[in-house]
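**Protein record**
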Amino acid sequence: ALQLLEDEIESVATRLAGLKARRNATLPVSRLPFDALILIFESYKDAFNEAGAPSSSSISTAKLGWIVCSHVCRRWRQIILGTPSLWQDLIVDLGPAWLEESIHRSKPFP
């Protein structure tokens, strides 16, 4: 009985995620072209790196910096993770695992 409930919860969660993705696709920001979003992310990253976290930022924003943009939605995450130029400045403050991941994500970017 418990497993049936767990399976139903998982099914509902999957359906909910799909509905949220469809809803997000209707928002105006979702119509921004890929290249425009990359420019926005690069500008935000540069501004964040220069000024640091706003004083109203949460602890996770202060720690992760501009990377929190990848937590907004699936599309933004895919763009951010798949854009080597965003990872050219290696992240060393978050430990060796993050450094290795930033090297991987920067791919062969000069």
